[in-house]
Write a structure and sequence with these properties.
- By secondary structure, the protein is mainly alpha-helical.
- It is globular and about 50 Å long.
- The two termini are about 20 Å apart.
- The relative contact order is 0.17.
- Strands 1-2 form a two-stranded antiparallel sheet.
Length: about 130
């Protein structure tokens, strides 16, 4: 897989903005963050028609934002804390907790694009014609 030359720098920023949850192993956390970052890189690269290794530095913050949105919307960091059993939703008072097994979360993330309508303005300014 082709890697962006700023991958480690972007990964470090992403990890600072989305810290590991209590009770989550470092290995699980790293897998989730890496998977999400690679997915966003692939989606952005496909959208703007620029290879991952030459994506402009000006969209790094957009990539981080898309990663944070994907993690939050798909509940990727909290998914590991669930037991993945038959109970999928627990509500008590005004608090509701939804559990999703990791396979479902990853499948959901992988089945669509991580690009949001908010990021289109930035990405469109870098979009090129596909060859």
């Amino acid at each position: 897989m082709i890697k962006n030359p700023r991958y480690d720098e972007i990964l470090e920023k992403l990890m600072a903005l989305s810290p590991k949850q209590e009770g989550q192993s470092e290995e699980e956390y790293q897998l989730i963050i890496d998977f999400t970052l690679n997915k966003v890189f692939d989606d952005v690269s496909a959208y703007v028609h620029i290879p991952v290794d030459v994506l402009p530095e000006q969209i790094d913050n957009t990539i981080i934002s898309l990663c944070l949105t994907a993690i939050a919307e798909n509940g990727l960091l909290s998914v590991i804390n669930g037991d993945g059993g038959d109970v999928t939703n627990v509500s008590e008072g005004d608090t509701s907790v939804t559990f999703m097994n990791p396979l479902t979360a990853y499948t959901t993330l992988n089945s669509g694009t991580t690009i949001t309508s908010n990021s289109l303005v930035v990405l469109n300014s870098f979009r090129t014609v596909a060859r």
